[in-house]
């Protein structure tokens, strides 16, 4: 099956792959560690993670990691995951969780919002009926992206791992 590539002319989503390892590693900063990964990466760790992502794409596993690319000669600007299942059964049938992070030089330009719109189209094409963004209440940037892309606040939830997250939802066509 061909790997999906989605674009709006400026932002492109395509599967995260081995060629992205060094740029992904170089893009990590304190903000990405705080909101997404929970710990500093090593280049070998990033390569291992991307290898896992490649296998997940090959299997069409429920967790699919996209590279967020920008420009005519697309530069890696961050990542966006579409998750049709989570480790704890907290998603309802038909929901897809979106998790995204951009590298510092790309933040504040509307790129995350454009990537989320593309990811919603992808999730709908895969049968999802609702997209979910789960954001830490102390992360106003993530909440702002949710609001700008048509998501509405649903609830604040303490998840099974103890993490407190605001849930934003958007019905998909």
TrEMBL record:
A single GO cellular-component term on record: cytoplasm
GO MF, any single term: protein N-terminal-serine acetyltransferase activity
Signal sequence, renumbered to the chain: none
Domain N-acetyltransferase: 11-173
Keyword annotations from UniProtKB, A to Z: Transferase
Short name of any one Pfam family annotated for the protein: Acetyltransf_3
The protein's name: RimJ/RimL family protein N-acetyltransferase
Domain of life: Bacteria
InterPro entries (alphabetical): Acyl_CoA_acyltransferase, GNAT_dom, Ribosomal_N-acetyltransferase
Organism: Phytomonospora endophytica
UniProt cross-references to SUPFAM superfamilies, sorted A to Z: Acyl-CoA N-acyltransferases (Nat)
């Amino acid at each position: 099956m061909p790997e999906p590539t989605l674009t709006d002319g400026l932002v492109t989503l395509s599967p995260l792959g081995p060629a992205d390892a060094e740029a992904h590693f170089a893009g990590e900063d304190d903000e990405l560690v705080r909101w997404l990964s929970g710990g500093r990466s090593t280049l070998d760790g990033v390569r291992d993670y991307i290898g896992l992502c490649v296998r997940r794409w090959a299997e069409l596993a429920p967790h699919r990691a996209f590279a967020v690319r920008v420009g005519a000669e697309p530069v890696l600007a961050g990542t966006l995951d579409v998750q049709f299942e989570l480790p704890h059964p907290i998603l309802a049938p038909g929901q897809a969780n979106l998790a995204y992070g951009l590298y510092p030089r790309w933040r504040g330009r509307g790129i995350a919002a454009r990537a989320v719109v593309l990811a919603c189209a992808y999730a709908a094409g895969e049968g999802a009926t609702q997209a979910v963004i789960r954001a830490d209440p102390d992360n106003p940037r993530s909440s702002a992206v949710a609001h700008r892309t048509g998501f509405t606040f649903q609830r604040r939830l303490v998840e099974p791992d103890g993490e407190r997250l605001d849930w934003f939802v958007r019905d998909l066509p």
